[in-house]
């Protein structure tokens, strides 16, 4: 296991935003970055730093995805027909850990990743323990029977912090949901502004 879990809120302070819109975020108390230089006056950022920040926000939001894997999503988004930035968002939203988080089976993307890794999720009736697994339209995602009464699942399902987006439907009584269609940027309920177009510019320099 990487150190992503223990440093997840450092991402918020470093970027200066509440990435997941959570009440626990330290940005709610201190908007400046961590460390002794966190309160220095900020200079006007360069185009490169703006693009880099957009990339770090998007990577961080989805559980701090590794650079090598994130670059593969960019390459696949370029390869597909249509708008590259929209393709990138669609690929990220199809990650199984993102879907489990969106369906409110886990309270954070990090918790969703761990939940999947521990074998609590099935896709179309088959156990899948790979968080980066990409779901397809019509796939049925379900919490395994023995895991449906776990406190972390029940707490997440009852959380009022966020709503389930329209490109998926969920039955929280059965702890089962269906991924309906591709997600567009305007559909995704990000708590902060995401700029995938700047991410595309970053990689295409």
UniProtKB/TrEMBL annotation:
One GO BP annotation of this record: ribosomal small subunit biogenesis
Q: GO MF terms on file?
A: rRNA binding; structural constituent of ribosome
Please, which domain of life does this record's source organism belong to?
Bacteria
Q: Where is this region: Disordered?
A: 26-47
Gene3D superfamilies in UniProt = Ribosomal Protein S4 Delta 41, Chain A, domain 1, RNA-binding S4 domain
What CDD domains does the record tag this protein with?
Answer: S4
What does the function comment of this entry state? One of the primary rRNA binding proteins, it binds directly to 16S rRNA where it nucleates assembly of the body of the 30S subunit.
Q: How does it assemble?
A: Part of the 30S ribosomal subunit. Contacts protein S5. The interaction surface between S4 and S5 is involved in control of translational fidelity.
Query: What HAMAP family does the record point to?
Result: Ribosomal_uS4_B
UniProt protein name: Small ribosomal subunit protein uS4
What species does this protein belong to? Komagataeibacter melaceti
């Amino acid at each position: 296991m990487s150190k992503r879990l223990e440093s997840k809120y450092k991402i918020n302070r470093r970027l200066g935003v509440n990435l997941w819109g959570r009440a626990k975020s330290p940005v709610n108390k201190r908007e400046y970055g961590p460390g002794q230089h966190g309160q220095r006056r900020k200079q006007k950022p360069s185009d490169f730093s703006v693009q880099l920040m957009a990339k770090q926000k998007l990577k961080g939001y989805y559980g701090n995805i590794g650079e090598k894997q994130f670059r593969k999503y960019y390459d696949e988004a370029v390869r597909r027909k249509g708008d590259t930035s929209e393709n990138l968002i669609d690929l990220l939203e199809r990650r199984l850990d993102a879907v489990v988080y969106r369906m409110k089976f886990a309270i954070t993307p990090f918790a969703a990743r761990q939940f999947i890794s521990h074998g609590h999720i099935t896709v179309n009736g088959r156990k899948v323990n790979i968080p980066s697994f990409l779901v397809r339209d019509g796939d049925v995602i379900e919490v395994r029977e023995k895991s449906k009464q776990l406190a972390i699942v029940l707490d997440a399902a009852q959380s009022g912090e966020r709503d389930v987006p329209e490109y998926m439907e969920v039955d929280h009584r059965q702890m089962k949901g269906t991924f309906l269609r591709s997600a567009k940027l305007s559909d995704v309920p990000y708590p902060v502004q995401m700029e995938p177009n700047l991410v595309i510019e970053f990689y295409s320099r």
